[in-house]
Design goal:
Layout lengths: L9 H13 L4 E4 H9 L9 E6 L3 H10 L3 E2 L9 E5 L5 E9 L5 E4 L9 E5 L2 E5 L2 H7 L7 H14 L12
Parallel strand pairs: 2-5
Antiparallel strand pairs: 1-2, 3-4, 4-5, 5-6, 7-8
Helix pairs in contact: 2-5, 4-5
Length: about 170
């Protein structure tokens, strides 16, 4: 008996976008939804929503999401700056936080290069900030790859004229 894998639907993502916008929380969509935001359309299903946020906003984000029934999902890689919140519907939000100094250097958290936080996209016609296409491709390297990684990188490279990283040639 196969158990259906939980999915973070476009409606779920829009709900989070609207909630964060309503509370003036700056965020950047990363991961699979970040790829689809850059493309302006959903190209595959997603098990979670990855977001990059300033670390100073984490307490407010936690409070907002906990009020919606989200709680910590224990994982081996959980840290103050990288954690997952989930709810009883199986929705998962993978939160990556960072802090820059006045010169744009990372001084705490997930090491997002300052210029990686420059992408713009759409999720169901809702404008969002996201990781730039070039950095999205770079972030999809250096670890064991799967078919979703290949799909994401391939469509980004095609749409934005970026060379396919050599490690993806095994999928060709």
């Amino acid at each position: 008996m196969s158990k259906e894998k939980p999915e973070m639907s476009v409606d779920d993502v829009v709900e989070i976008i609207q909630q964060f916008n309503q509370h003036h929380i700056e965020f950047y969509i990363d991961g699979g939804w970040g790829v689809d935001a850059l493309l302006g359309e959903q190209t595959r299903s997603h098990s979670d929503l990855d977001i990059a946020v300033q670390h100073k906003d984490v307490p407010q984000i936690r409070a907002l999401l906990e009020a919606k029934g989200f709680t910590d999902v224990p994982r081996d890689d959980t840290r103050d700056c990288n954690f997952v919140l989930g709810d009883d519907r199986g929705r998962l939000i993978d939160i990556h936080s960072y802090t820059f100094d006045e010169q744009g250097n990372i001084i705490f958290g997930v090491p997002y290069p300052f210029d990686s936080l420059t992408g713009n996209g759409l999720v169901n016609d809702h404008p969002v900030k996201c990781i730039s296409p070039e950095w999205m491709v770079k972030f999809h390297t250096g670890y064991p790859l799967d078919e979703n990684d290949y799909h994401d990188v391939k469509v980004l490279c095609q749409r934005f004229g970026i060379g396919l990283p050599p490690e993806y040639e095994i999928f060709e």
